[in-house]
Specification:
mainly beta, Lipocalin, eight-stranded antiparallel barrel
Length: about 170
């Protein structure tokens, strides 16, 4: 096995970055086409439906019926997805769930592919206390999901084939 000096490894790494950047500049292909997260997409985005509020931490979720979805996109592609749902059942009580997934995105033009690597599902069910708890997703539940995206003014429109994450998001 060949060993390279630290100096040589740094130079090779810098050459690879320069080559990727140069390719984008020379070809006119935008950075997101090379898999990088476009700066305008980086940050926290979310939307709330019904009477819900943005919720990525179960202890700070408002009671009532509604929900929220949020994405937190980092410049290096790391991403957190949060889906909060809440319902009030007459004569029974509150049912709340929070799905959190961490992973990475790759951006190719108007398409985002989110590949989760870990996640949890938490439920508090006043109607069926036996369904209250926190569960980790199995690796088989963490499949890549493709979303279409575009910016509309200061908003982010996301659509996906399942409809789960589809909506118009605002910066948070």
């Amino acid at each position: 096995m060949l060993r390279q000096s630290g100096k040589r490894q740094r130079h090779i790494g810098m050459l690879l970055v320069a080559a990727a950047t140069g390719w984008a500049i020379i070809t006119g292909v935008p950075a997101e086409s090379a898999g990088l997260v476009p700066p305008e997409l980086v940050g926290k985005w979310g939307f709330a439906v019904a009477i819900g509020e943005y919720c990525a931490d179960f202890n700070h979720c408002a009671p009532g019926s509604g929900g929220s979805i949020s994405f937190d996109f980092k410049p290096d592609g790391r991403t957190t997805f949060a889906l909060f749902q809440s319902g009030l059942v007459d004569g029974c009580g509150q049912i709340r769930s929070l799905e959190l997934k961490d992973g990475r995105i790759k951006v190719n033009g108007g398409t985002i592919v989110f590949t989760p690597s870990a996640g949890t599902y938490k439920s508090v069910n006043d109607c069926r206390p036996d369904l209250t708890g926190t569960w980790k997703f199995d690796p088989s539940d963490l499949k890549p999901v493709s979303h279409h995206w575009r910016l509309e003014g200061g908003s982010l429109r996301i659509t996906d084939s399942s409809g789960e994450a589809s909506g118009v998001y605002s910066r948070r």
